[in-house]
Amino acid sequence: MLLALLRLTRPANLVTAIADVLAGMAIAGYFVLFKAPPAPVGWLCLATVGLYGGGVVFNDVFDAELDAIERPERPIPSGIVSRQAAATLGTVLFAIGIAASFAVNVTAGALAVAITVASLVYDRFGKHHAFFGPINMGLCRGLNLLLGVSILPDQVLPWAWVGLIPIAYIGAITMISRGEVHGGKAGTMRLAGLLYAIVIACIAAIAQRRQQLGTALPFLFIFGYYIFPPLWRATREPIGRNIGLAVKAGVISLIAMNAAWVAAFASFPLAFLVFCLLPLSRLLAKLFAVT
């Protein structure tokens, strides 16, 4: 039962959410402060685990009937976890995420509430809309990046625009993920590839502006290495299995993207520490489903 509840939270994905907030903290400039207290870092890492976990749990709660047909092996349709128990778990996780955010500051708390609302809207309504669904899902990740920025509340507004970059990236992943079960279209994969390239170019341009391009480039190269080959295979043969592997690679590779953010705004050693979350996420992805 406990293992099944853990499966609902997508553990590999939770690690990527932690990388998001660490990247946001770097963007805010928190890691270059003299004697920056570590407690807010811990609170926001806990917060993002709760918020992301709550979002993916409610995804399965709302999809229980569809999963009974398309993915009967999942915890809820298989009968291992009741829908009510899953909803309770999701609610507790959201509550933890919001409480931990307010423990840092009011701005972080408000962003946590916004992430909760955006997640529930996507789980219940957004995922069924071809255009607004990917934007809605991307918004959740964009707000999660800003949750990290909120460690210094006065930096949220100046850097709010960077949230558009994960919106574009996650929107692309969400767009192609619609073909995981029944297959997709090569044109959708090509559009996703274009968005991937734009995201990499934007981060590279920001790093160049901050005179940190050389520091960020290794992580951007690794990022591209992980996301483009599986997407290319899905483009050539857009069947469910290939698309699923492309989606999985896209989600886990968020850690490499976040390491690039840290490299652009902080230092190579800190970026490397964030990048070290990637092997953990990849290991968890072998044990638990990512999508």
UniProtKB/TrEMBL annotation:
It is a multi-pass membrane protein. One of its GO terms (molecular function) is transferase activity, transferring alkyl or aryl (other than methyl) groups. InterPro entries: Prenyltransferase_related, UbiA_prenyltransferase, UbiA_sf. Keywords: Cell membrane, Membrane, Transferase, Transmembrane, Transmembrane helix. One of its GO terms (cellular component) is membrane. It is found in: Membrane. The chain crosses the membrane at residues 12-34, 41-58, 92-118, 130-152, 158-176, 188-207, 213-231, 270-289. Pfam families: UbiA (PF01040). This is UbiA prenyltransferase.
